[in-house]
Amino acid sequence: MKIPQPLWEERALVIGSTLVVADLHIGYESELRKKGFSVPSQTQGMIDSISRILVETGADRLIINGDLKHNIPKGSWQEYSEIPLAIDTWLKKVEEVHLLKGNHDGEIERYLPSDVIIHDPRGVVIDGIGYFHGHARPCQEVMETGMNVFAHAHPAVSLLDGLARKEKYPCWVRFRYLSGDKQGEGILMPNYNKLLGGVSVNEESYLGPFLKDVEIQEEKIYLLDGTFLGERCDLIPCGK
Fold this sequence. Notes:
The protein is α/β, with parallel strands linked by helices.
């Protein structure tokens, strides 16, 4: 089994010839416009950056680990036009595109060509590694792999500067877990769409049932540039 490796300075993971991204939330800008914010679409930028990474890494498989689209229960004109554009572009660069259905991916089949391989929210095992989005409990087959990659939680870490100003930075979380007689390693991915906010892993509880169901150990926090900040327990403010 090949070891998953975050691509530093990117919000993507490479495993052999497979590239993994998550939480693109195409259509998020249409929700912001309804709230009175004028924000240009980020989709073309994501299409271009993922295309570039596919070429640079030589990947022949793309896994989208949930929440390709944003609006639920109904989609927007933005999703209807931009999701097919994104997928068609990536299908020209790889042999396979897989989608793990996330909580925002209701009726996603309506937006995708038949070439895309769609998987159940409870996850799938590909080349010995378990993938699931994170809003649903992973299936037994995924748990038994001993190496799980998931998203959904939009992990970030809150840090104070010398003037006690707080800023939030997206991050990666790598950890070990115990669940009954099963144990393994997990990687929590940051959201690919930069417009989305993050959930501070050192100030708030994780989102999703998986991390609440298992005993977590050695939670190591890394910034996007690869900086190792230490373990989560050492980054939690006093009194939390």
